[in-house]
Amino acid sequence: SSDKTYSTMVDSESSPVKDFFRGANVLITGATGFLGMALIEKLLRVIPDIGNVYVLIRPKKGMTASERIEELVKNPVYEKLKEMRGVDIFQKLVAVAGDVGEENLGLSPSDRKLLIDNINIVFHSAATLDFEATLKPTVSINLLGTRRVVQLCKDISRLKALVHVSSAYVNSNRIGEAEELIYPPPEDAEKVIGLAASLSDAAIEELTP
């Protein structure tokens, strides 16, 4: 009926949302963040017949990508999922070593081919939320990182959807209500990318408000 909410549509036995994801292979960036963890939990709990969920994740602090996934699923957010589906549901999680801040997403040739050949849906939610970060790393992750994901998606042979998750602060400089609109950026993205690439950190610091 017309009064069905998104939640009831997803949680029902049969729904267009479930049909869309059934058997699909999903790639998630930013999986260790708040939204990324919740997304993994929701997909595996509500759509157990989803394909594999590939997680782009950096090796960090001496841990491999696979080891970081093993730590990730110990988070309490996954307790309900474990109770409903059992721990075997995590076999659908596939760790892919990579970094949106690196060229070609830091992917090995074999992993890039793995994604190109298998992925159907991409959720790009990786971003730096460090408001004190300098321009160079912010541009590399938030701007160029998104471009790198789009470039990968252009090569994926059976892509059904790319979902880009922006920061809640994307329109934080607006006074009053921020509507659900795409506002003109304060600066041209290509110009900002060029400045970050060509200027020194000291020069950028002088230009930064």
Automatic annotation (TrEMBL):
MF terms in GO: alcohol-forming long-chain fatty acyl-CoA reductase activity; alcohol-forming very long-chain fatty acyl-CoA reductase activity
InterPro entries: FAR, FAR_NAD-bd, NAD(P)-bd_dom_sf
Keyword line: Lipid biosynthesis, Lipid metabolism, Membrane, NADP, Oxidoreductase, Transmembrane, Transmembrane helix
GO cellular component terms given for this protein: peroxisome
GO biological process: long-chain fatty-acyl-CoA metabolic process
EC number in record: 1.2.1.84
Coiled coil (residue ranges): none
TM region(s), chain numbering: 20-40
KW Glycosyltransferase (keyword) present: no
Pfam families tied to this protein: NAD_binding_4 (PF07993)
Function (record text): Catalyzes the reduction of fatty acyl-CoA to fatty alcohols.
Sequence similarity: Belongs to the fatty acyl-CoA reductase family.
Protein name: Fatty acyl-CoA reductase
Source species: Diploptera punctata (Pacific beetle cockroach)
